[in-house]
Amino acid sequence: MLKRKFLALGAALGLVGLLGAGSTAMAAEVRLLNVSYDPTRELYTQYNELFSKTWKAKTGDTVKIEQSHGGSGKQARSVIDGLNADVVTLALGWDITAIERAGLINPGWEKKLPNNASPYTSTIAFLVRKGNPKGIKDWKDLWKPGVQVITANPKTSGGARWVYLALWGALANARTHDFSTAQGQAEATAAGAAAKDFPVYQNAEVQALIADLFNNHVPVLDAGARGSTVSFAQKQLGDVLLNWENELWLARDEFGPEKFDIVYPSTSILTEPPVAVVDKVVDRDGARAVAEAYLQGLYTPEAQDLAGQLHYRPRNLDALKKYSADLPNIPFFTIDETFGGWVKAQTTFFADGGAFDQIYHPSK
Amino acid sequence: MAGVLASKAPPGAIAARPAATESALGRRILIGITVAFLTLFILIPLINVFHQAFAKGLDGYLAVFFPPEPDPNAVLNYSQKRRLAEAATQATRTWHSIGLTVAVASIVIPLNVIFGLAAAWATTKFEFRGRTLLTVLIDLPFSVSPVVAGLVFVLLLGRNGIFGDWATQLVWPDIFSLRWVGFGESFWPLAFERTHTGIIFTPLAIVIATIFVTFPFVARSLAPLMANLGPDEETAALSLGASGWRTFFKITLPNVKWALLYGVILTLTRAFGEFGAVSVVSGHIDVNDTMPLRIEKLWNEYNNQAAFSVASVLTFLALVSLVAKIAIEWKTTNEAKR
């Protein structure tokens, strides 16, 4: 009796093998894998629906987009290790540069799409408990005695690296621009391209202040941006959370506006999460056309409106204006102009043995 | 309770000697400690799982798996429509994760039954050099952290891995995408609608990682019993002219069937519940979510009630397998007494 069952199993396996050999070339629909960072899950779930509809109307093909979300650096590592991402939409340029250095993305990806290949931006702001009991209004208030600051670990979290740069740039009085006007945006881009020297790196006073903040005001460093939100909102740790603006809004929407207030500092950094096509993968799978259309679609008015709705800052000025009540205009400095881009910032601050490792001694 | 506590010993092993030499006070203290510990670390968390799952009542619990159908006549605003669509997407993902978990387990179990039988047979019925080493190797998955196990496969099969060049280019069909396409296009009426490229970060990697972490269960449940029985009966059968296969099916398998089932149940529970190794090799793609990965994602999306609802399904399964385990133990002890 059992013997017969084993034989049947063997026959079934053999049949499957034969079928596999005969008909692997058939594919009824196009599949794309978008590898992204943590907070964008809601954004891409909705954008994927939108894109599938437009792509079907345009070409008649059904496109099915799969999502993968996780810490930005970890996701980049997975793509390098063999995760078949057709497109990557990560938290910061350095992670895409890492994939480029592994030979999977062709150099020059930043220039293939408008606005440094970042279709939407965000910034770093504060989430405080309702009524702002500790009176935290600007960066300098974080150093008030007894204030506990929640942020993620810059060594592992993309969002926390932006937090670190926002702190550093704001303390060093980095030059800011008005991103609510086309003129301001153009000035910022030009200034970023022209910037040659970056005095912020030599600012010992700022370094001492940041060392003091991380060693004496930060009780815990979570591995990821979402983890730090959970620490602040669910576990009730700390007085102020430093995180992506869109992440603060999500926490406020999830837990109720009666629990938290969002506070905008006087200046902050323009965070630019970039997107890129993974050339090696799309060329192998013949998915270049749809992958490029997918990323270009992020710049369409509909997608820009969606970004604004979910509290990302659209590049499109009309969409930005529409959501300006939720996304107030504050002066922004950029990573290109202030820090000379991600490669420089990463190697100086966050690489092993870099500035962050030197200042952070939590045992004290 | 005693059955649960004694369940470390595989069925068929010699029953524990009743320990009645301690004083009455000592016994009471020991029982007290055990009960307090079990309540604090097992019973309360277990109850909490179900408490959280039913935080929004039975309707809320069922809505996680069967999202509410919108009334076709109702006029809904944008955010209400959004909420319904979101609930439907979430339920689809949850069902997909349940399907994948069952599929992985149904592939892993037959393979590990074969491997486990072979391993237990080899290490107990034969004497050969390196036998001890083999026994240690079989136990290795127990002592390696599952996350490390997952990373080992990334380092083997990933792009920069030892087999990376081959393993990331391999194209294989998804056996669950087999569809009837008719005789029009080719000789075969069936075709796979989807293929995968590479091994790591695909369902195949999940199967491999699960095989790794569950490998010892069948072998470990069988080995003590097989060693106890010794090769005598098989030798007798062979000397009377039975073939190797016949000996196996007529003598060995009936002798070990309960221990085998016991190993299968342990394998099943672990295959359903494995998180670490599977998380590493899944690539965090939604379609690669097994139930434990799905629970984590729901939790990270602030969807606590849904997370606990899925967790309650896993917990329920664990309880069922616990009952099955006890039943098998009870049955084997009774048979041994006879």
The number of distinct β-strands of chain A equals: 12
Through-space gap between termini of chain A: 70 Å
C-alpha Rg of chain B (nearest Å): 24 Å
Q: Which stretches of chain A of 5+ consecutive residues score pLDDT under 50?
A: 1-28
CATH 4th-level superfamily of the largest domain in chain A: Periplasmic binding protein-like II
| Cα shape of chain A | globular
**How far apart lie the N and C ends of chain B?**
23 Å
Order of helices and strands of chain B: HHHHHHHEEEEHHHHHH
Compute the number of helices of chain A: 17
Described by strand count, sense and barrel closure, the largest sheet of chain B is: 2 strands, antiparallel
- Total domain modules of chain B: 2
What name does CATH use for the topology of the largest domain in chain B? MetI-like fold
What does this entry look like structurally?
The complex is a heterodimer of chains A (364) and B (338). Chain A is an alpha/beta fold and 364 residues long. Helix content of chain A is 48%, strand content 15%. Chain A has helices at 2-22, 41-59, 72-81, 93-101, 114-117, 158-171, 182-194, 204-216, 225-233, 245-255, 279-285, 288-296, 301-309, 317-322, 335-339, 342-350, 355-359; strands spanning 30-37, 63-70, 87-89, 120-129, 149-152, 221-222, 240-244, 260-263, 268-271, 275-277, 313-314, 332-333. In chain A, strands 4, 5, 6, 7, 8, 9, 11 and 12 form an 8-stranded mixed β-sheet that branches. In chain A, strands 2-1-3-10 form a 4-stranded mixed β-sheet. In chain A, strand 1, helix 2 (41-59) and strand 2 form a beta-alpha-beta unit. Residues 1-28 of chain A have low confidence and may be disordered. Chain B folds into 2 domains: 58-69 and 77-144 and 201-338, MetI-like (MetI-like fold); 159-199, no CATH class. Helix content of chain B is 70%, strand content 4%. A two-stranded antiparallel ribbon of chain B has the order 1-4. A two-stranded antiparallel ribbon of chain B has the order 2-3. The longest helix of chain B has 48 residues, at 78-125. Residues 1-9 of chain B have low confidence and may be disordered.
